[in-house]
Design goal:
about 210 residues; single chain; 12 helices
């Protein structure tokens, strides 16, 4: 294929998920994502690597380091470095090549959190969010909080979503409240749904979701 789009990447992801893959195959796929700077697709493969355990293979880790470096996320590159049990000369090359690619890491973090949400890896997503704050000193922006609301809502963990919102240093935006409200409708939670609807109306009276 001369051009690869979301459909082709999704087909590849589903195919590997159904038929299985090894560390070499996954490393090759991630390297392709890195060459195309396809961060969102690469982040989904990262979730697959975590589930399958292939993240422990150095060829896979090195490929992710290159991917995140080329896409401007030194936070994830460094986190992979810390978690690695074995480091080789190839790793040093990958990490040194990633160093100049600082880009806009805050937006990349949103994509990773969204990937966790989309693949249903709730605990991994929550751990990643906590790691951002406690281990890397990153102050979340509103979009990061919205990703966690979406993560919990997709899993039907509405009470946790409410507790999370109540602990946030800022109020959710329209997308956050609408996400919670939609999930409450789906799961039939009238109490939290009313709270979300009232909050959404207060924030944006003309919003059709409320």
């Amino acid at each position: 294929m001369t051009q690869k789009n979301v459909v082709s990447w999704t087909a590849m992801l589903v195919g590997y998920g159904q038929n299985g893959f090894n560390d070499f195959t996954l490393g090759s796929v991630i390297s392709s994502c890195a060459n195309l700077a396809s961060l969102e697709e690469g982040a989904q493969f990262h979730c697959q690597a975590l589930v399958s355990g292939l993240i422990s293979f150095i060829i896979v880790t090195n490929a992710f380091i290159t991917l995140y470096g080329k896409c401007g996320s030194m936070e994830d590159s460094y986190q992979l470095f810390v978690e690695m049990n074995t480091r080789d000369e190839v790793f040093g090359l990958h990490y040194s090549q990633a160093m100049p690619s600082l880009g806009k890491p805050m937006r990349r973090l949103i994509r990773v959190l969204s990937a966790y949400s989309g693949t249903g890896l709730v605990e991994k997503g929550l751990q990643y969010f906590e790691s951002m704050i406690k281990e890397h000193g990153i102050i979340p922006i509103p979009d990061h909080y919205t990703c966690i609301i979406d993560l919990l809502c997709r899993a039907g963990r509405l009470e946790e979503a409410r507790n999370f919102i109540n602990k946030m240093p800022c109020h959710p935006d329209v997308v956050g409240w609408a996400t919670l409200l939609s999930s409450c409708r789906f799961h039939g939670d009238m109490e939290i749904g009313k709270w979300a609807a009232d909050s959404l109306i207060e924030l944006e009276p003309q919003n059709p979701e409320s």
